[in-house]
Design brief:
By secondary structure, the protein is an alpha+beta fold. It is 34% helix and 23% strand. The longest helix has 14 residues.
């Protein structure tokens, strides 16, 4: 490391060539919270959450704050850049899988009854809530088969469902999807879908008149199917 000294008034300024301070490395950079690792992150004037998932690092933080940010990046709690990292990944083709169960024979098969009963009991499958899946199936039914008994069952299932309509709601300005894996040894593996809009938003509108029933979801669904 080469150092030079420069006299300025009565102060001695030390300039390091070939190295930077943590403040220089982070000031002006955009950072985002990894919601798979933490729900909130705060240092100085930066407060990140599911609703405010990114921020630009200011130049007026304390050295300790800059070091916390840098360590959080190393741990995978914080990532560089404006990227919405969802708390859960919604697997592809899950809603379609449930639709295929009832597409030809409705709820006449034991497998269809069993799968949908288990779905509402667990509340979700691979990141999709029971109501998102049921609403998707209802939309498909209304757009194709239009079977009254299937539509009635799906509507009743949605009405009786107790639980969140979706597991999380991405912000409107969410950009990209980054999957973060934090290994047992502390190393971080990242997979980025560059430029792709968040695919995890609900693709069908939840029912506006959704009112949970008085019975437990499992009991209500068992009565519907039996």
């Amino acid at each position: 490391m080469v150092k030079k000294q420069q006299k300025e008034t009565n102060n001695v300024v030390s300039v390091s060539i070939g190295s930077t301070t943590v403040k220089e490395r982070l000031s002006g950079k955009v950072i985002s919270i990894n919601l798979k690792a933490s729900t909130y992150f705060g240092v100085g004037d930066i407060w990140l959450s599911p609703e405010k998932y990114w921020a630009e690092v200011p130049d007026n933080l304390s050295n300790e704050d800059y070091e916390i940010i840098e360590k959080s990046i190393a741990k995978g709690t914080i990532i560089l850049g404006k990227t919405f990292v969802p708390p859960v990944d919604k697997a592809s083709n899950i809603k379609e899988k449930y639709w295929l169960l009832i597409k030809n024979n409705g709820f006449e098969t034991k497998e269809a009854k069993s799968k949908f009963t288990d779905l509402v009991r667990r509340g979700q499958d691979s990141g999709w809530t029971a109501i998102e899946i049921a609403q998707f199936c209802l939309d498909q039914e209304n757009n194709s088969k239009k079977r009254k008994n299937v539509i009635t069952l799906l509507n009743q299932l949605i009405t009786q469902y107790r639980g969140p309509i979706q597991l999380y709601e991405p912000p409107d300005d969410a950009e990209g999807v980054k999957k973060i894996t934090i290994n047992a040894d502390g190393s971080v593996e990242a997979e980025t879908n560059s430029g792709k809009k968040v695919a995890n938003k609900i693709e069908t509108s939840p029912p506006k008149n959704h009112v949970p029933g008085n019975k437990s979801t499992s009991d209500a669904v068992n009565e519907l199917f039996n």
